[in-house]
Design goal:
Layout: E1 3-8, H1 19-27, E2 30-34, H2 45-52, E3 57-59, H3 61-66, H4 70-76, E4 80-85, H5 93-104, E5 108-112, H6 117-125, E6 136-138, H7 149-159, E7 164-168, E8 170-171, E9 176-177, H8 180-194, E10 204-209, E11 217-222, H9 223-226, E12 236-240, H10 247-256
Parallel strand pairs: 1-4, 1-5, 2-3, 2-4, 6-7
Antiparallel strand pairs: 7-12, 8-9, 10-11, 10-12
């Protein structure tokens, strides 16, 4: 049997892959890549192919989900295969399913990690890692139907005095990427519906754009002001902090994310 290696590409461009990952790519028999689970706004496939001296087959959501990765699994039964994934592999459940299928067929699997958007956003926000609760994705409101799950998760996390990391919907194949501004408007609509005083105009939020790039933007402010802030191009993410801050978190937000000095009042 062959081998299937999941390799993380990192956060931003084709230079983010690890040296170990690069070596395994060059030594492989078949190279696949997917870019529908996340956006690497600085990634150049042509530049990457020149760097590795190989061709790369880009697979779609249909290839991995509807067709259950058969194209990749058939190749892995014959030789050494790599699947290149934005960020850190296996964060997306799609890839976990593929790894399980490979192992059940007797195909050896392994992982070469890349930088994760989860750790990057926590670090960039200046908020402390141990104070983050469950994360959640804010999806687009197709057909006018707005998911209330993000609101529920934020409520539960705030009840436990925890921050909430919100991933924003990415539909790379449609070139649709939710912005911080859109996510705040959606949360405001949910607040108007639920009336829980969870996301008010005076609620603190932290927006992050293009984590891992040279022009990363990190901005903390009250929702009423942040909703109009220009974060530039995608990808975007947002953090809804707990109602109480550690004094070092307040200092970090003021000095690293340009938060208003009034956030010191959240220190308790």
């Amino acid at each position: 049997m062959g081998e299937l290696t999941f390799i993380g590409l990192g956060l931003y461009d084709d230079m983010d892959i690890s040296l170990r990952g690069l070596k395994v790519v060059k030594d492989s028999d078949f190279i696949f890549a997917e870019f529908y689970t996340s956006l690497m706004s600085g990634f150049s496939m042509e530049r990457f192919k020149r760097m590795i001296g190989r061709e790369v087959s880009v697979v779609s959501r249909k290839d991995l989900e509807e067709e259950e990765g058969e194209l990749i699994l058939r190749s892995a039964a014959e030789g050494r295969v790599v699947l290149l994934v934005p960020g850190d592999p296996l964060i997306a459940t799609t890839h976990i399913d593929l790894r399980i299928r490979a192992e059940k067929r007797g195909i050896k699997t392994r992982i070469i990690h890349g930088a994760s958007i989860i750790s990057a956003i926590i670090a960039l926000s200046g908020l402390q890692n141990y104070r983050f609760g469950r994360s959640v994705t804010i999806p687009f409101s197709d057909g006018g139907c707005i998911s209330e799950t993000p609101y529920d998760v934020i409520v539960k996390n705030k009840t436990m005095d925890l921050h909430t990391l919100c991933f924003l919907d990415v539909r790379a194949e449609e070139r649709r990427f939710m912005t911080v501004n859109e996510s705040l408007k959606m949360l405001s609509l949910l607040e108007n519906r639920r009336r829980g005083d969870i996301i008010t105009p005076k609620s603190l939020a932290v927006g992050i754009a293009r984590a891992g790039s040279e022009d990363v933007v990190v901005k903390a402010d009250y929702a009423k002001d942040l909703v109009n802030y220009n974060f530039g191009g995608p990808p975007h993410s947002i953090v809804i902090p707990a109602d109480r801050l550690h004094f070092m978190e307040a200092e970090a937000l003021i000095n690293l994310a340009d938060a208003p000095n009034e956030v010191k009042e959240m220190v308790k």
